[in-house]
From TrEMBL:
<dbReference type="InterPro" id="IPR050083">
    <property type="entry name" value="HtpX_protease"/>
</dbReference>
<protein>
    <submittedName>
        <fullName>M48 family metalloprotease</fullName>
        <ecNumber>3.4.24.-</ecNumber>
    </submittedName>
</protein>
<feature type="transmembrane region" description="Helical">
    <location>
        <begin position="219"/>
        <end position="238"/>
    </location>
</feature>
<dbReference type="GO" id="GO:0008237">
    <property type="term" value="F:metallopeptidase activity"/>
</dbReference>
<keyword id="KW-0482">Metalloprotease</keyword>
<keyword id="KW-0479">Metal-binding</keyword>
<feature type="transmembrane region" description="Helical">
    <location>
        <begin position="185"/>
        <end position="207"/>
    </location>
</feature>
<dbReference type="InterPro" id="IPR001915">
    <property type="entry name" value="Peptidase_M48"/>
</dbReference>
<dbReference type="Pfam" id="PF01435">
    <property type="entry name" value="Peptidase_M48"/>
</dbReference>
<keyword id="KW-0862">Zinc</keyword>
<feature type="transmembrane region" description="Helical">
    <location>
        <begin position="17"/>
        <end position="40"/>
    </location>
</feature>
<feature type="domain" description="Peptidase M48">
    <location>
        <begin position="105"/>
        <end position="320"/>
    </location>
</feature>
<keyword id="KW-0645">Protease</keyword>
<keyword id="KW-1003">Cell membrane</keyword>
<keyword id="KW-1133">Transmembrane helix</keyword>
<dbReference type="InterPro" id="IPR029024">
    <property type="entry name" value="TerB-like"/>
</dbReference>
<keyword id="KW-0472">Membrane</keyword>
Amino acid sequence: MDFFAQQARVRGSSRRLVALFALAVVAIVAAIDAVVWLAMGHHPVDGEPARSNLSLLLASSALVLAGIGLSSLFRIMSLSGGGKTVAESVGAVPVPPDTRDPQLRQLRNVIEEVAIAAGVPVPDIYLMEEEPGINAFAAGYSVSDAAVCVTRGCLDNLSRDELQGVIAHEFSHVLNGDMRLNIRLMGLLFGILVLAIVGRRVIWFGGGRGNRRDGGGGQVWMIGLALIVVGYIGYFFGRLIQAAVARSRESLADASAVQFTRQTDGIAGALKKIAILSEGSELHVANKQEVAHMLFGEAGAFNALFATHPPLLQRIRTLEPGFREEELVRLAASMQQAAGAPSTPAVAGNPVNPRGTPVTASPSPLPAVLAGAVLAQGAGSATDPTRFQRAAAVQQAMPTTLTVAVQQPEPALTVVLALAMSAERELQDAQRRIVADAFGDDVQQAVQTMAVEVATLSPESRLPLAALAFPALKQLSAGRLQTLLGALDALVRADGRVDLDEYCLVRLLRLQLTEAQQPRRAPVDGLKKLPACRSSVMLVCAVVAANGNADEAAARRAWLLAMQQAFPGEALDWSAPPATWQTPFERALDDLDGLMPPAKDLVVQSLASAIHADGVVSVEEAALLRVICASLHCPLPA
């Protein structure tokens, strides 16, 4: 699945969302104006136009627009904490990093594996304990503040492969920009619905005035009733917008999940169990419709008009084209037998959803592009056939001492400081003084002890270990985080130079922790085209080529391959990066982050050409590419 193409589609969805929301607001304003005009008696009398109509209508329009706008802004601001705020708003609780519950431990392992495979920091993990249905969602403004939330039903009913499929589906939303759009949609829907809330308040507080001789109470009651009616009409259209924006993205996320796990059985099995089990994917939380567009399955009974997902059978058949409904009956019977229940099938004929109505497939044929997307791998894919398995192997090979330490904030701090410590004895004394000055002798001694364990790590495990530490580091106070980042800078510069592995570690942590502190300020997709950033592309590719090849001639060949990919037909001159390349390199990355998603795709393809020029992908090249993709806010390529 081409994640860059999906990011471009998200941009289109965002524009459509704004346009549809604007149309809904205009219709609401017009309806309210008509009611106010009639209720307040400002209409032509004896053929003469009323003088006060214009000012009255302008005032009512301004009030309605201000009410919708401020309400939407309030709701979006209330979600400024990012993914964890959304998760907590539906009653979810964080999963402890040191949990001993086997189901929760498995959930954490699966999410950590997928995060390492995708090249992103591990998200916050939440559980909806009281929800027996099979459902999940990912929320946040960027990968740095993402939260993945699952229901208890996922843990109780899904196998590990099926849970992987669900989590991989949610990670596709993390990578392709859906999460920011989802939060905006929550705010806009609240702004529309708030009119109905205001209408109920108006009737409650103003209806008692109806006994007054001037009849003002009747007018207030009419305005309140109109606000309720118009508010719910607006909410009706808001639900339509919600469904339209979400539905197409869910099919793409299903296909993306297959590419994470390299098998269809997992996510298809999860969908089948939703069709079989009486709870389905239904949620019971009161504000479930507010997050319906970001869920793995429908929040309630399937309704073709308001459905935020394609029909279940359509989703299953997209993944398994030869699937037949009779298989659900056999699966239900086998599940009941395994559980020791009577062998009477849970479904008969068509599968049933939680409300008991048949789930039928869409009569229209499946789009060929979706069926092909399950098997075809685009240039912007975040996985290859073995990456998911390699990520699991890297995680399992880490010393238990380190994986336990990164679960809590202070021990995680000592781990990342230990990662920045040099193996050269003559530098270690100076580095210990840096740590002691920043954090005290106790932390310095803990870092010294932890450095012994870190020294046993394989080179390819260093950045994944930092990714595992990320959720705990985010819990540190803002002041302690700044002290940490300052200490890391001082540690890697203790010898007067910054090695590549040191630079990658510090750059990643600084970028992701800074974004996590201010989620709403995370960058959005840019508008620049590739020719506008030619010099930046040349420099970034030169840095990658120079660090991935032993001599300048080989580096030049790799760089030329990258230039042919990025700027075909152009004659460009090779220039080796400066000895102190880090500062201009970061300026170039900031410049490239403003590119459109298709242009970022070309940059990543060009970098891949440079890396593969010698037929070998070194640890240094992989680490540098991870930093570049994180800086460009795009997925790590295959």
